[in-house]
Amino acid sequence: MTSDNDSSAVAELVERGMAKHGGEIHTGYFDFHGVLTRTLTNSEMVDRAVTGFLRAFPGEEAEKPDIEFHLFTVDKLDDSLGEIPAKAALLYDWGMVKIYHQGPLRYLEVDTRARVVADVEKRTAVGFAEKELLQSDWLVSNLFFYPL
Protein backbone atom coordinates (compact mmCIF):
# COMPACT_ATOMS: atom_id res chain seq x y z
CA MET A 1 0.00 0.00 0.00
CA THR A 2 1.07 3.61 -0.40
CA SER A 3 2.20 5.78 2.47
CA ASP A 4 -0.13 6.12 5.45
CA ASN A 5 -1.12 9.66 4.53
CA ASP A 6 -1.59 9.03 0.80
CA SER A 7 -5.24 9.36 -0.15
CA SER A 8 -4.78 6.85 -2.99
CA ALA A 9 -4.71 4.22 -0.23
CA VAL A 10 -8.52 3.99 -0.45
CA ALA A 11 -8.41 3.37 -4.21
CA GLU A 12 -5.81 0.64 -3.69
CA LEU A 13 -7.99 -1.02 -1.04
CA VAL A 14 -11.00 -0.91 -3.39
CA GLU A 15 -8.90 -2.62 -6.08
CA ARG A 16 -7.71 -5.21 -3.54
CA GLY A 17 -11.29 -5.85 -2.43
CA MET A 18 -12.55 -6.22 -5.98
CA ALA A 19 -9.72 -8.58 -6.92
CA LYS A 20 -9.91 -10.66 -3.75
CA HIS A 21 -13.68 -10.79 -3.55
CA GLY A 22 -14.69 -10.53 -7.17
CA GLY A 23 -17.90 -11.94 -8.48
CA GLU A 24 -21.28 -10.29 -8.22
CA ILE A 25 -21.27 -6.75 -6.87
CA HIS A 26 -24.52 -5.30 -5.52
CA THR A 27 -24.92 -1.58 -6.13
CA GLY A 28 -27.28 0.87 -4.46
CA TYR A 29 -27.99 4.52 -5.28
CA PHE A 30 -29.25 7.06 -2.79
CA ASP A 31 -29.94 10.80 -2.79
CA PHE A 32 -29.45 12.64 0.51
CA HIS A 33 -31.04 16.00 -0.31
CA GLY A 34 -29.01 16.35 -3.49
CA VAL A 35 -25.92 14.41 -2.40
CA LEU A 36 -25.76 11.40 -4.72
CA THR A 37 -24.37 8.31 -3.02
CA ARG A 38 -23.43 4.93 -4.44
CA THR A 39 -22.85 1.83 -2.32
CA LEU A 40 -21.16 -1.31 -3.59
CA THR A 41 -20.83 -4.63 -1.80
CA ASN A 42 -20.05 -8.25 -2.53
CA SER A 43 -22.75 -9.35 -0.05
CA GLU A 44 -26.47 -9.63 -0.77
CA MET A 45 -27.17 -9.38 2.97
CA VAL A 46 -25.17 -6.14 3.28
CA ASP A 47 -26.93 -4.74 0.22
CA ARG A 48 -30.33 -5.55 1.74
CA ALA A 49 -29.34 -3.96 5.07
CA VAL A 50 -28.02 -0.77 3.47
CA THR A 51 -31.04 -0.45 1.19
CA GLY A 52 -33.35 -0.88 4.17
CA PHE A 53 -31.40 1.61 6.29
CA LEU A 54 -31.35 4.23 3.52
CA ARG A 55 -34.80 3.53 2.03
CA ALA A 56 -35.99 7.08 2.82
CA PHE A 57 -33.37 8.42 0.38
CA PRO A 58 -33.92 6.58 -2.92
CA GLY A 59 -31.71 7.69 -5.77
CA GLU A 60 -31.11 7.00 -9.41
CA GLU A 61 -28.06 5.50 -11.02
CA ALA A 62 -25.28 8.07 -11.23
CA GLU A 63 -22.12 7.67 -13.26
CA LYS A 64 -20.19 9.99 -10.95
CA PRO A 65 -21.75 10.02 -7.46
CA ASP A 66 -20.80 12.61 -4.85
CA ILE A 67 -19.96 9.88 -2.32
CA GLU A 68 -19.01 6.25 -2.93
CA PHE A 69 -18.87 3.51 -0.32
CA HIS A 70 -17.54 -0.03 -0.83
CA LEU A 71 -18.07 -2.76 1.76
CA PHE A 72 -16.57 -6.20 1.29
CA THR A 73 -17.31 -9.16 3.52
CA VAL A 74 -14.40 -11.50 4.23
CA ASP A 75 -13.96 -14.77 6.06
CA LYS A 76 -11.09 -13.36 8.19
CA LEU A 77 -9.84 -9.77 8.43
CA ASP A 78 -6.10 -9.35 8.01
CA ASP A 79 -3.73 -6.38 8.20
CA SER A 80 -3.65 -5.94 4.41
CA LEU A 81 -7.28 -4.80 4.55
CA GLY A 82 -7.17 -1.27 5.91
CA GLU A 83 -4.60 -1.42 8.67
CA ILE A 84 -4.66 1.67 10.89
CA PRO A 85 -1.32 3.49 10.86
CA ALA A 86 0.49 3.76 14.19
CA LYS A 87 0.65 7.56 13.77
CA ALA A 88 -3.11 7.97 13.26
CA ALA A 89 -4.76 10.07 15.99
CA LEU A 90 -7.75 8.71 17.90
CA LEU A 91 -10.88 10.83 17.34
CA TYR A 92 -13.55 8.75 19.10
CA ASP A 93 -13.47 5.70 21.32
CA TRP A 94 -16.81 4.00 21.91
CA GLY A 95 -15.26 0.80 23.22
CA MET A 96 -15.89 -1.66 20.43
CA VAL A 97 -15.96 1.13 17.79
CA LYS A 98 -13.01 3.49 17.35
CA ILE A 99 -12.40 6.24 14.80
CA TYR A 100 -8.93 7.56 13.93
CA HIS A 101 -7.65 10.17 11.49
CA GLN A 102 -4.46 11.02 9.68
CA GLY A 103 -4.47 13.70 7.01
CA PRO A 104 -7.49 13.31 4.71
CA LEU A 105 -8.07 9.71 5.84
CA ARG A 106 -10.44 8.49 8.54
CA TYR A 107 -10.24 4.98 9.94
CA LEU A 108 -13.13 3.18 11.60
CA GLU A 109 -12.35 0.01 13.52
CA VAL A 110 -15.05 -2.30 14.87
CA ASP A 111 -13.60 -4.72 17.38
CA THR A 112 -10.84 -6.58 15.54
CA ARG A 113 -13.20 -7.85 12.86
CA ALA A 114 -13.99 -4.85 10.67
CA ARG A 115 -12.29 -1.74 9.29
CA VAL A 116 -13.29 1.17 7.10
CA VAL A 117 -10.90 3.64 5.50
CA ALA A 118 -12.48 6.86 4.23
CA ASP A 119 -10.92 9.66 2.21
CA VAL A 120 -12.86 12.78 3.15
CA GLU A 121 -11.36 14.84 0.31
CA LYS A 122 -12.19 12.31 -2.42
CA ARG A 123 -15.47 11.36 -0.70
CA THR A 124 -14.94 7.64 -0.96
CA ALA A 125 -14.67 4.87 1.58
CA VAL A 126 -13.88 1.17 1.61
CA GLY A 127 -14.64 -1.29 4.37
CA PHE A 128 -13.91 -4.91 5.14
CA ALA A 129 -15.87 -6.91 7.69
CA GLU A 130 -15.83 -10.52 8.72
CA LYS A 131 -19.01 -12.26 7.62
CA GLU A 132 -19.55 -13.61 11.12
CA LEU A 133 -19.71 -10.06 12.54
CA LEU A 134 -22.49 -8.97 10.19
CA GLN A 135 -25.25 -11.19 11.49
CA SER A 136 -28.00 -8.57 11.43
CA ASP A 137 -29.10 -5.58 9.38
CA TRP A 138 -28.80 -3.44 12.50
CA LEU A 139 -25.09 -4.25 12.84
CA VAL A 140 -24.41 -3.36 9.21
CA SER A 141 -26.15 0.00 9.39
CA ASN A 142 -25.17 1.05 12.91
CA LEU A 143 -21.57 -0.14 12.96
CA PHE A 144 -20.61 1.24 9.57
CA PHE A 145 -22.91 3.92 8.23
CA TYR A 146 -24.12 5.66 11.37
CA PRO A 147 -20.66 6.48 12.84
CA LEU A 148 -19.32 7.70 9.48
List the helices and strands and how they pair.
Elements: H1 8-20, E1 26-32, E2 35-41, H2 44-53, E3 67-74, E4 89-93, E5 97-102, E6 105-110, E7 114-119, E8 124-130, H3 137-145
Parallel strand pairs: 2-3, 3-8
Antiparallel strand pairs: 1-2, 4-5, 5-6, 6-7, 7-8
Describe the 3D structure:
The protein is an alpha+beta fold and 148 residues long. It has one domain. Helix content is 22%, strand content 35%. The protein is built from 3 helices and 8 strands; from the N terminus they run H-E-E-H-E-E-E-E-E-E-H. It has helices at 8-20, 44-53, 137-145; strands at 26-32, 35-41, 67-74, 89-93, 97-102, 105-110, 114-119, 124-130. An 8-stranded mixed sheet has the order 1-2-3-8-7-6-5-4, sandwiched between helices. A hairpin with a 2-residue loop joins strand 1 and strand 2 (35-41). Helix 2 packs across helix 3 (137-145). The two termini are 23 Å apart. The mean pLDDT is 86.
